[in-house]
Amino acid sequence: MATVSAAHRPADGGPLEPLTVPHFAAFCSRLTLPPKAKAERRRGEPRATRPAPQPLLIEPFQKTIVTPMFDGVAETFVVLPKGNAKSMLSAALALYHLCFVDEAEVFVLAASMGQARRLLNMAAGIVRRSPVLRRHLDLKLGSFEIRAKRDGGYLKVLSSDPDTVDGIGPTLCICDELHRWPTLEAYVLAKEGLDKRGGQIIAISTAGEDENSAFGRMRKTALEHLQVRDGAFKYAPAPSGEFVWLEWSLDPADDLTDFELVKTANPLKQITVESLRARYESPGTRLAWWARFVCGIWTRDDEAAISAMLWAPCQVDHCRIPDGAEDVVIGVDFGWRRDTTALVPVWGLHDDPLTVRVDERLKILTPPGEGKSLSTDEVWAEIRTLSAIWPKATFVIDPNAEGEHVGQRIENELRHKVVLQAQDPSPMADAASLVMELVRERRIDHPGHLEYSSHVLAAYLKSVGASKQRFVKKTDTASPIDALIATAQAVRRLKVVADDPGPVRPFVINR
C-alpha cells in the first residue's frame, strides 16, 4: 500500500506524493460510500435492483479540513453542523493514515464506546467494500481494531475515559464529538503522547450547549486568533503554528430561516437550500436543535428559559455602568459550598419602559470543591471593590445562606442601603417574568461574559401556581444559575423603584 498506483498519478504522469492532500483525495476516490438501496426503491426501482456504488469524493471544504494536518500542524480542530459527513471523513482519514504511515498507531477517541464503535464500523464498511483494502488490512472488530498486514500498524477505538487513554503514543489521534466529552482530561493525555511518535490530533465536533464548558472555553481561546471569516466559515490559526481552528457556524443574531445563509454553514454538496427548508418545516424540528445542529450555534434545548438566539443580540461591547453612578443595584446570590456566589451590578438606563445594563465587572466566585467552603474574606473583598466603584449602590440580598449577616455588615461598615429579598416562589416568578421580557424586547445590555452567559442559558422554568414560572436548575447537579438569580433580584428591585420611588420598608435592614 505504500506504493502509488496508476489511479494516484496526476494528468502529467508523475506520481502524487503520499501524505499530501491530493494523494489523500485520490485514495478516497477509489473507495465507495455505503449503498442507499431504500432511497433507490422510493424512486421506483425494483427491490432486487442494487444501486451503483458511489465513490467517496473529497469535497473542497473537506480538503480545507485535512490540509493543516498534511502541512504538519499538531492539532486541528473542526466544528461543523451535523450531516456534513464528519464521521465518514474521519474514518477515511484513519484508514489512509494506517495504510501510508509506517507502523501507524491510530486512535479514535469518542465520548462513549458506543460512539467509538460507530466510527469503527464505518471504517470497517469502507474496508469491506474495497478489494484493495481487504488485501492489506485485517478487521479485528472483537478487539475494536483494524490492523495493517504489512507492518502491524493498527487503528484502535477508545472511549474518552482518561484511564484508557493514559500512556498512548499515537501517530494520529482522531477525537470525535468533543462537545460530548465530560472532561478534556483524555484529550490532554493524548496530546502529551504525541511527542513519542511525532503524532498529530484532529478533533471534529458539532457545536456544544455550554460555552463555559471545557470545550467551549477552548473554542473561545482559539477564536481569539481569528484570521479569516467568510460567511459561516471561520479560520483561526495559532501564531505559533501549533494548532488551527476551523469552524462553520452562524451567529445567534442571524436569521436562521434564511436558508441560503444556513447553507453556508453546511458545505456538503448534497445538503441543498431545498433540503434545509424541508428539514426546518418538518413538524418534528425544534428551534434549539435547528440552531445548534444545523446552524452551528451553541445553545441548550428548547426547554431552556432563555435561548442563545435571544441572549446574544443583547450583548454590548465594553458594557459598563459609569463609575459613581447612582441608582445602581447589586444583586447578590450566595453559594458557599455547592453553588457559586454571584454579585451582579445592574443599572437602569430608562424607567419607561424599563431598560437596564449589566456591568462587565460582575463577579462569580466558585467554591474550592471537595466540601470546602468559599472564603468569606474573598467574598467580602469583592463586595468592597464594587462598593468603591458605586458608593451609593443598593445591595439586594437573599437573607438565607448567611445573607442577613453579610447585609448587616455591608450597612454597618460600608454604609450602603441593603434590601433583603427572600427567594420565595412568587417574587422570584415576578423577577423571572421581568428578566425574560427584557431579553425578548432587547431592553437589557449584557457584556457577553462567558461564565455569566453560561448561568443565564442554563436556567429552566418551573411553574409557580397557575400562571407564573421561576428560574431553576434542570437538576441539582446541573450548571449553576446563581448569576441569573442575582440579576433577577436586582432587576426586580429596579422595577419596584421605577414604579414607586419610595423605600420598600419590609425588606430594608435598620431603616
From TrEMBL:
This is Terminase large subunit. Signal peptide: none annotated. It holds the Pfam family TerL_ATPase. Gene3D superfamilies: 3.30.420.240, P-loop containing nucleotide triphosphate hydrolases. Residues 60-221 form the Terminase large subunit-like ATPase domain.
